[in-house]
Every structure is written in C-alpha cells, then in structure tokens.
Amino acid sequence: MKILSPKNFGVYRASEFVELCVQFVIPLTELPPKALYARVGDRIIPLEVAPDGHCTSAHGFKATAQYRLGFGLKRFVFVAFDDTGIETVIGIRYIIVRNEDIGPRVSIPRNAKNLPNGINVIGSLNYEFGLGEAARGMVQAVQRTGIPNAAILAPMVRNSVKCNDFDYTRIGRALEYKINLFNLNAPDMSLVRKRWSRVFSNGQYNIGYWYYELPRLPVSWCEGFNGLKEVWVASRFVYDAVHAVSPIPVYIIPPVVSVVAPGVVTQSEFGLPVDKLCVLSVFDLNSYRQRKNPEAAIAAFKLAHKKNKDLHLVLKVNNAVRNPQAHKILQEHLVGLEAVTLITDVLPRATLTRLQATCDVFISLHRSEGFGLNLAECMALGKPIIATNWSANVDYMNSENSCPVNYTLVELVETIGPYEKGQVWAEPRVEHAAEYIVALAANPKLRSEIGGAAKATIEALYSPTAVASAIKRRYEAIAGRL
Questions:
Q1: Which 3 state secondary structure label does DSSP give 20?
Q2: What is the Cα–Cα distance from 190 to 121, expressed in whole angstroms?
Q3: Which of 61, 141, 248, 462 is the most exposed place for a label (fewest CB within 10 A)?
Q4: What contacts 150, CB < 8 A, 6 or more positions away?
Q5: How far apart are CA 31 and CA 427, in angstroms?
Q6: Any idea what DSSP says for residue 286?
Q7: Contacts 24+ apart (CB under 8 A), 169-173
C-alpha cells in the first residue's frame, strides 16, 4: 500500500490509558486498508479505521484505539495491511511511562489478618484541587490522633496541576494497616478496583470519603459502594444524599480547614488597588462553571459597583488553561468592567492564603456545594463571606457569622457532568448579594464582627484538633471489631 504525505501518528496520554491516533492518506487508485494495528512488544492492538476527508487525488483515513499503560519505555509500531495481506509500516512512536503518569506502585497485602490496626489515608495528595486539599487535611487530622497511619497516593492521574506544598517524604509505599480510608469520590472507586483489586478481597476494612453537590446521588455512583464497609461524608447535605441510597453505614466526619494567617500582607503584593475594598472569589473550572456560577458573583459586583466606586473584584481561577471554553465565557462577562483583577496563575498554598488574607470580602454565589472549602478557609481567616444559603455550606454559615444569600431552587434542564437533568440546585438572588457588598463596604465594624464570628465557628468545627477527635471516636468503634 502506498502511503502519501502528510501522515501523522501519535500517542497521547489520557489518565491510565494512552490514546493511539493515526492519520494518513492513500492514492485514489489504492484500495482502503483492510485493517490497521499497533504493535507494542508482543501485543497487537487493533485500531478502528474510519474515513477522514477526501480530495480529488487521495483518500484520507483516521485510526484510533486505547491502550492501558504500564511502566517503562514503550515502542508503538503502526502497521496497515491490505486484502493481499501485505503489511505497510506507517510509523513508530516511543513513550516513557513513569510513576507519576499513571499512579505509584503500592504494595498491597495478601491477607490483612496479621496487619496492625491503623489507617492508610489514600487520596490525590499530589494534586492542587479540592479533593486533593481535603485528602491532605485528612492526613493532617489522622496524624494528630496518634493512630498509626500511612499517607498513600491514589492510583490515578488527575486533570489538574501538581501540588508542591505537601511533604512527600511522608508518602508510604504499602497499605500496611488494616483500615483503608479512600479520599476519592464514588466514580473513582471503579479504577481503584481495577488497579488495586486485592484490597477488596484481602480482609482490609475499606472506607470511602465522598462529596457530592446535589440532593440525589446519581445511580451510576452507587457502584462505588462495592467493596466498602462504610462511607464518611463532610456535611449533612451530602449525608442526606448518600444515606438515602446507601447499603452500608454513613457517618459525618468533618474535613479539616486549616489555614495559618500570614503576617503583614498588602494588596499591592498582588497588584491590587490599596484604596479599594477588594471582593474575592476563588473557583476551579474543573468543578464545572455552571455549578460554581462565577457569572452571578460578577453580576452582583457590577450592581454594587454602581453604588460604590471604591470596590474592586478579584477573581482567582484554577485550571483555566484546561477549560478554555469556560474561561472564554468568564472573560465575556468581564467585558466593560475595569475594576477587576483576574488571576489564572497557579498559586502555591501559602500564596493563595496571602491572597485570601489581603482581600476584604469573599463571595461565592454557587448553585451547590459539597462543602465549600474556599468559603470556610476565608471564614477561618476572619473574612466576612457572601454565599448562597443552600447546600453543604449551611452547616457552618448563619446570619451572625456570614452573609447568607437568598435563592430559588430550579430544576436542571440538561445534564452537566455528574449533575443530572431533573435534579435541583439553587439560583442565588444577585440583588441580595449586591446589597451585602454595599453594606459591608460601608461598615468596617460590621465586617470585623462578622469576620470574628466566622473565625470562631470554623475553629470550633473544623480545626485539625476537632476533626481528629471525630476520627478517633469512629476509629475506636471500628478497631474494636477488627
């Protein structure tokens, strides 16, 4: 078979798989390939071939397949063959697969009978996103209990930037204790069962720690219960959703909210105007723009800015590069607004805390939250927060320690990621949020009073000490039966 230029072939990482993709053209006088495959060592991987364009002088084709990664150097040889059985090598590609590409190697015991009591805290500890931060907080709380423990990286790759602020010298390489605490949401458990199947048959006591942001758990998530003995959740809101369908016990174990207030920090450090009241919003576009609803926060700020020009909006956006369409929509809502600073750079944990500390007010007009970590962190720093008065954040928000925004429950008219059509979430009242911004801007004493109450609430409910106490109580109940 005669292959014409141009021809393109490649190997693209996608979680634990690589995507194999081949594009090529052949003369019109040639018959299409009967089949196309890739050779990887002794393995043969068939590729699905489909037409890919047509011109007056050639036929175009595209072939794709998935291949589960293993460690080491891989050599992919792309081969086409025709009806006569003649093979044509289209091209060769190499890829080096490292631990960080698909998750670490972890030693899993064959039998848990002789393992000591203790907790293996498993999670995406090495990624900069909400579940990763929650997992790192859980490690901190478990270590404070005095319970024997190990911190273990989950066997998966995330679509997120890596976290550089965790002490990776504490990472273990073996599930050395009887209890596994998976700080992973229900859909992640299917991958754990594929990669670490032995943990579900060796007698270890497996616990899931889940978050979800709507009142009804998706049916597909129920597979996550398989192999677990119980589930922990962060809030009453998530408890109600999980408990309604759970075949196993569900317990509320609060997450850790631990931020250390920095020393002297000024708005000029981030290029912010020092003579304005700065209103901060932090959100991750990986967590779905429609749910985080930054457009509502922008709209509320615009209304408040009409009444008070001494306001400045600060938007800290995570994973903007990975979500270009959502980022574009966000920028469209900012057109014409000059009193705004948009930060898309990856900020180390300490720098993000400094940004939270230097701003005066935090706003989140989300449609739903499974906990609301950024809200709680800003409260821990003594900041007044303006937030939708619905979902998990009502566990720690009230009219004395925050500014709860009125809302209307609306039905989802389309499925958005894990949020199914027909479920409900909140539509916050933008005008109410704007009223709060104006009132807080005009009254420093009010900001101080609300911020002080906020800090006390978070310390009482979510400090490492408070969470460690909750974990220890539950651990002692479990360990007594093992």
A1: strand
A2: 18
A3: 248
A4: 118, 119, 120, 121, 172, 174, 175, 176, 177
A5: 58
A6: G
A7: 170/139, 171/104, 171/125, 172/120, 173/104, 173/105, 173/106, 173/107
The closest of 209, 256, 279, 272 to 376, measured between CA atoms, is: 256
Name 469's Cβ contacts closer than 8 Å, sequence gap at least 6.
none
Q: How many Cβ atoms sit within 10 Å of the Cβ of residue 281?
A: 26
- List the one residue out of 278, 303, 235 whose CA is nearest residue 383: 278
Rounded to 5 degrees, what angle do the CA atoms 244, 249, 253 make? Answer: 95
Q: Rounded distance, CA 207 to CA 230, Å?
A: 5
What are the tens digits of pLDDT across the range 309-318? 999 999 999 8
- Model confidence pTM above 0.85: no
Please write the tens of the pLDDT for every residue from 21-37. Answer: 777 777 777 777 777 87
- What is the CB neighbour count within 10 angstroms for residue 345? 9
Type of residue found at 144: R
Dist CA 115 CA 133 (whole Å): 28
